[in-house]
Amino acid sequence: MPHDLPQNSAPSRRTLLKTGAAAGAALVIGFHIAPRRALAQAAAAPAPNAFVRIGADNSVTVIAKHLEMGQGSYTGLATILAEELDADWSQVRVESAPADAALYNNLLMGPIQGTGGSSAIANSFLQLRRAGAAARAMLVAAAAQAWGVPEGEIAVSAGRLAHEKSRKSGTFGQFAAAAAQLPVPGDVRLKDAKDFALIGRDLPRVDTAAKTNGTAQFAMDVRLPGMLTAVVARPPLFGATVKSFDAAKSRQVPGVRHVVQIPTGVAVVAENTWAAIKGREALAIQWDESQAERRGTKELMAEYRTLAEQPGNVARKRGDIGAGFAGAAKTLEARFDFPYLAHAPMEPLDCVVRLTPSGCEIWAGDQFQTVDQLNAANVLGLKPQQVKIHTVFAGGSFGRRANTVSDYVVEGVQIAKAVRGVAPIRLVWTREDDIRGGRYRPLAHHWLKAALDANGLPAAWQHRIVTQSILAGTPFAPMMVRNGIDGTSVEGASNLPYAIPNFQVELHTAKAGVPVLWWRSVGSSHTAFSAEVMIDELARAAGKDPVDYRLGLLKGRPRHAAVLALAADKAGWGKEIPKGRFQGVAVHESFASYVAEVAELSVAGDGSFKVERVVCAVDCGLAVNPDVIRAQMEGGIGFGLSAALAEQVTLEGGKV
Fold it and tell me: Strands (DSSP E) along 215-264, which ranges?
């Protein structure tokens, strides 16, 4: 849960925050590092970030600005700070930060506080190391004063300070209050990587106990006095609106308290979820479908395929593909269709909203805290700082909770406003609501053409993508849309690592009324698949081994080559495997992590197959917690297999 953290009235850009606090929190300290583009604007720099609180009870509480949604960010963030602090891991706790972009912005997202783009650990690494090192230095200084010894003679380990010559020792909690009264160090020395004691270890996750014993709080666990539950009847077609509705039968359902119209539909507010759902079923609604999307996925894909016949906007170009194809010994073409996909997190969308005389409080597994804060404030006519966001655990997201219109949070606020704040409102999206509610991975069609030279090497590569834009019309567009090219549509294709002299990637941005959103790995979820399958086809046409063929094209890409070679070795690539088994391979980089996988299948006589195992090698740089990385990759493999083999969202006549 967030806490109101004290802050200086006029801090400078690289100032540390330190303050004494009564009742257990003896030292609060933080460190601010401005985003790269703001480094030259020191005069307008924001206040420093508060990242750690050390209590008199020896507890070390790390304040996390990123959401924990199962990916292990709380554990990784705490490890980074605890490493430089030399904390006792058993004493480390994590709390979510309040919504405040000036203090807790994501350094990769400019003025936005949020979690996404695989950025949580990378963009907090130096911030948290410096905060931990500064807190450690202040504790050492306090102990040195108390014992009358030089600071350089004090050793720190596992939450304790010790002076060998005098045999004096003490805990962090004993010196936290005194440390808070000392000057903040201007510069702090960080450890050499060889001296890391926590980073790089399989430390137990900080949220395991709470999620095991049931004390972890998700939005569905929030209970407030007098709270009511709401569900929303939304239109069957995207883009349709309410023309009229009759709630007479709905209001007769026991437990139903209110029925109100909001921009996205009709909300039924009741004493419990069951009553709200039954009340929704009793509604009679007429929809205005004049502006609705009526095309089905078959019609949309047919249009996409037609678009792919024409040149698109050039996203990346190298050499001359015309010349490359003209001199080709062999040419191959391939097409790939990718369906809409729902995120379907384990915990469906939900939030709790309470209006207060001074503003509004929201409890949610919030992925874009300050975006949701701003959108809620706009609904209520408040200043953003009047909206307090309580970020609780989220049961998965995969991008769904990170949307710039804050759809489910705004709905909750609109309902609370419509009932005039008579009670706190819990908004619940059922699983069916979630699957039908849009914000899918975009439908996409890929057309690829490649040429081989006389040596079987790729001489030309043309990759044309047709898909909707995720970023158009959002606050991220100025950062990530260039010359009409949505970077999320072509990532993984435009930066293909293989040495191909003549190379071109094109994009058609299609128009459809189906709302779309980033979905786990975003563009790479479809660009990597199409590109890697095409590389396999080239290797086959050249009569080459798929691994050797790739390695030959990755001479200038050592990290790609290393994970590929490792995965192949661990999978026994090229060695004899049981009859009826087959192996396939792929390598890709996404968000600065390099991954290679070898999938091994068994094929039955009727042509059905089973994935027997997947061998995965990953290079994500410094592994803060290897066990968390393993869990991420295991989950990602299951997620990818499900998406490739089983999942799709289809529309007929515009209906899901």
Answer: 228-233, 241-246, 256-262
Report d(CA 507, CA 490) in Å as an integer.
7
615-647 pLDDT, tens digit per residue, is: 999 999 999 999 999 999 999 999 999 999 999
Grouping H, G, I as helix, E, B as strand and the rest as coil, residue 157 is strand
Taking the C-alpha atoms of residue 401 and residue 60, their distance in angstroms, rounded to an integer, is 29
Residues 106-142 as b or e (16 or more Cβ within 10 Å = b): bbbbeebbbbbbbbbbbbbbebbbbbbbbbbbbbbbb
Longest dimension (CA), the chain: 84
CA–CA dist 304, 312 (Å, integer): 12
Q: What is the pLDDT of residues 121-147, one digit of tens each?
A: 998 999 999 999 999 999 999 999 999
Q: Which two tokens stand for residue 202?
A: 């399989």
Entry pTM: 0.91
| Beta-sheet pairing, 60-64 with 52-55 | antiparallel
Tokens of 354: 């309470």
Give kind and range of the element (H or E) at residue 101: helix 101-104
Structure token pair of residue 145: 């004063």
Strand-strand pairing, 502-509 and 458-467: parallel
Quick check: 374 and 360 in contact, CB under 8 A? no
Q: Which pair of tokens denotes residue 34?
A: 């401005």
The CA distance from 331 to 362, in Å, is 57
Residue 102, SS3 per DSSP = helix
Domains of the chain in start order, with CATH, are 16-213 (3.30.365.10), 219-290+344-436 (3.30.365.10), 295-339+441-544 (3.30.365.10)
DSSP 8-state secondary structure symbol assigned to residue 207: T
User: From CA 403, how far away is CA 414, in angstroms rounded?
Assistant: 17
Residues 269/229, Cβ–Cβ less than 8 Å: yes
